[in-house]
Specification:
The protein is mainly alpha-helical and about 550 residues long. About 55% of the residues lie in helices and about 5% in strands. The protein has a five-stranded mixed sheet. The protein has a two-stranded antiparallel sheet with strand order 1-2. Helix 6 runs antiparallel to helix 17. It is globular, with a radius of gyration of 24 Å. About 50% of the residues are buried.
Length: about 550
């Protein structure tokens, strides 16, 4: 039952309820949901098949293989194991070959598993990506259910359409990475907390499981814990305030107790994720971990497994590094606090951006929908603020939760129940869908029409926004069989795809003749020798909107 058809205390009854004749038939609604998810599945599977490894994937794939073969936690401690266990469910069907005597670091591990152990890298990578694809589709059902709870079936379809056609969700949902899983688990937690307003005994424990899954997938989810616990108290208050004459302090005390119970469930999930990998939890703290002081030192007292706590120290060390930024055509030494909002303006479809922004206003302005604002807008805002505080301006994947929550907020426009609102929703959803379809199958470098589309993204953004190493295989199909000078940003091995490549930066410039292929992220930051090589070359082709091919005389 949606907010608009329920009788919430204090609700504005001026908005009429839907009559049965206005409701879509159940079979028609199911058909639309299936069609939207099928479109998304086709887009993600096509992308997964055609793309070679992105920068992060080999590390996660290699770590997942070690989980399966050796039950060891020694690799990739900066990320908890649940996301890699999900990836491992696909790899379990591959029977990957792995040398048990391997002792290299995690980057070498990924290369060893994909390219040096006799495995088929394409098949192994596809099987690693499939579980994330399935999970992304399931999160689509959460988006539909959340929006339907708020505004009815039409709102649910609107939200699901924006989700299913989101180029960023398609791009990152088709990769064996952790960004979509952690965002989806947090979204699921928010939806379950919304439902806990009516049935707290059922949904609060489930929300704790979802929160624990997020924290056990990626440490960035820790920023959501205060928000989730606040929403637990809010949901408990709403569910119990009309059950009888109770004192406010007593009711709040029970809400705090419920929040503590949810936190304990989440902690148990994190422990379970580590124990699934290694039931004995063998772990030796690495000797080169960075020292932590002040508030960071308090993190060491959290009731979490030692590998998790040491992984947090690795993350702190990464945050303390100086990362370069490329935004709107300009290179910056260091991070920019406004990077993510600016990058999202480039990467979000204009239809989704307009509809989601309008929906956010409606959630706050319409009395009947206002109770949902803390569950939709507050988590997204807090998570975005936390991501903006990071020193790593490497892509909107760090804010991949934004298109998820924005899709749900967009459903609020449907709640206005005005003809112009329905027309506006339909036009903007179609606009977003057409924009997404036009970029097929190059979803990773997508940018909206205001910024020139996918072909122009590399002029404004870099790294996982456009060029994450995904087009090495496509480059191989574009080369005429001659040797190529290659500056490649990625984790793939060119020779594994039949590319005879040499490094143009390792020889004098006057020896570099013929074809020169350069990843667009390298072009964005080019200086010195590479800049000189590019300036003396003629661009003749591009591959996947992420690699430019030049001809040097």
């Amino acid at each position: 039952m949606s907010l608009l058809t329920s009788r919430e205390p204090g609700a504005d009854e001026a908005i009429p309820e839907e009559v049965p004749g206005e409701r879509p038939r159940r079979w028609w609604l199911a058909l639309v949901v299936v069609a939207l998810l099928a479109e998304m599945a086709i887009a993600m599977i096509t992308t997964a098949v055609e793309q070679t490894p992105t920068i992060d994937e080999p590390v996660y794939v290699g770590t997942a293989v070690v989980y399966l073969e050796q039950h060891s936690l020694r690799y990739n401690p900066e990320h908890p194991p649940l996301g890699k266990l999900i990836i491992a469910t696909g790899l379990a069907f591959a029977g990957p070959r792995f040398d048990p005597a391997f002792t290299g670091d995690q980057t070498q591990l990924g290369r060893h598993v994909l390219y040096e152990s006799g495995n088929d890298p394409g098949r192994l990578l596809l099987l690693a990506r499939l579980p994330v694809i399935v999970l992304t589709l399931l999160f689509g059902l959460v988006v539909f259910a959340f929006a339907r709870d708020l505004t009815g079936p039409a709102g649910g379809v609107t939200a699901l359409a924006l989700y299913a056609f989101s180029p960023d969700l398609i791009a990152h949902g088709s990769l064996a990475t952790l960004d979509v899983p952690v965002a989806g688990f947090l979204l699921t937690s928010a939806w379950l907390l919304w439902r806990a307003r009516r049935r707290p005994v059922l949904y609060l424990p489930l929300a704790g499981l979802a929160l624990g899954a997020a924290v056990a997938t990626k440490m960035s989810a820790l920023a959501a814990i205060p928000v989730v616990l606040f929403l637990v108290v809010l949901s408990w208050w709403h569910a119990r305030r009309d059950t009888g004459p109770q004192r406010t302090i007593w009711l709040l005390g029970l809400g705090v107790a419920a929040a503590l119970a949810v936190a304990l469930i989440a902690i148990a999930v994190v422990w379970a994720a580590y124990l699934v990998v290694d039931p004995r939890l063998h772990w030796a703290t690495p000797p080169d971990l960075p020292a932590v002081h002040g508030l960071r030192a308090l993190a060491d007292r959290l009731p979490l497994p030692r590998p998790y706590l040491d992984g947090m120290r690795v993350q702190f060390g990464l945050e303390d590094r100086t990362w370069s930024t490329f935004l709107l055509g300009r290179y910056h030494a260091g991070s920019l606090w406004y990077y993510l909002p600016a990058a999202l303006l480039v990467k979000l479809p204009l239809g989704a951006l307009a509809l989601g922004s309008a929906g956010a206003v409606v959630l706050v302005a319409v009395p009947q929908l206002r109770p949902a604002a803390p569950y939709v807008l507050v988590p997204a805002t807090v998570l975005l603020a936390a991501a903006m505080a990071s020193t790593r301006d490497l892509g909107v994947r760090y804010a991949i939760f934004v298109p998820m929550f924005l899709a749900i907020a967009a459903a609020g426009v449907v709640a206005l129940r005005r003809r112009w609102a329905y027309v506006s929703v339909a036009v903007l959803v179609v606009f977003a869908a057409v924009s997404s379809l036009r970029t097929f199958p190059y979803y990773l470098p997508y940018s909206n029409e205001a910024f020139g589309g996918p072909a122009q993204t590399h002029l404004r953004l870099h790294d996982s926004n456009v060029d994450w190493g995904q087009d090495l295989g496509r480059l191989a199909g574009r080369l005429p069989g001659e040797r190529v000078w290659l500056v490649y940003k990625g984790s793939g091995v060119p020779s594994a795809y039949g590319i005879d490549a040499a490094d143009p930066l390792a020889v004098p410039p006057d020896e570099v003749h013929g074809l020169l292929a350069v990843s667009d992220s390298a072009i964005a930051k080019a200086d010195g020798r590479l800049a000189a090589l590019i300036s003396g070359s003629e661009p003749i082709d591009e591959v996947g909107h992420s690699i430019t091919i030049y001809r040097r005389p």
